[in-house]
Design brief:
Number of helices: 8
Structural class: mainly alpha
Helix content: over 70%
Largest sheet: none
Distance between the termini: 41 Å
Shape: elongated
Number of domains: 1
Length: 259
Amino acid sequence: MDIATGLGLLAGAVVLCTLILMGGDLRMFLDLHACIVIFGGSFAATLIRFPLTSIVHGLPLGAKFAFSMRRITQRELVEEVAALADIARKQGPLGLEKVEIEDPFLAKGIRFVADGYDAGFIRDNLERDRDNFLTHLDEGQKIYRAVGDCAPAFGMIGTLIGMVQMFANMTDPSKLGPFMAVALLATFYGAATANLVCLPLADKLHLKLVDEEINRTLIIDGILMIREAKSPTLVREMLLAYLPEKHRTEEPEPEPAPA
């Protein structure tokens, strides 16, 4: 799990709640009309912007990957692929069938190699799988960014509606407070939804999209080299090119302190 996402959302909620409780109570900031304007309006605008299939695929996938992260680093991924190349070199492709692989994309490629599929088929299938996954992830980040763009605008719309209702009932002082609350809370809901939830999640998904594109392309190249029975050393050196230069060399282990 990506702890940073959860901690960030929790910290933002704590900050807002603390500020609210310092000058009143939470019930003052609960308003159905403002919720309808922000969430209903943003959802309606998002439906207009994107096909329904994109929303159905993008929202859940985006939410999943905003809170998840790879369990291994790119450096560890390179070493794992090199170890698989060593097994294939010593035991042949059939030796790969006994290896347990955690990453499902890498496991799929290794299964193709073990089953003896043609290199062209392996490349086409894995690249199509990668591109489809990245497309859905990109749709997710675009949808969250769209909601983040819409929310403040609908907050302003809610403010205008509240102001119109307030001025239309100037003769009844008892209605001025509730209408003013609707006007201000709509702006508050829109700003909080956009800047605390939607836009940060969209940025996080964009970073994960770039990371997944590198990882899956690395895996595809490694699988094809294993299919061609390249040496583990060559596989490792070729795949290290995907890593930042400072991560290509292993850091030396610290020397033990003198007794």
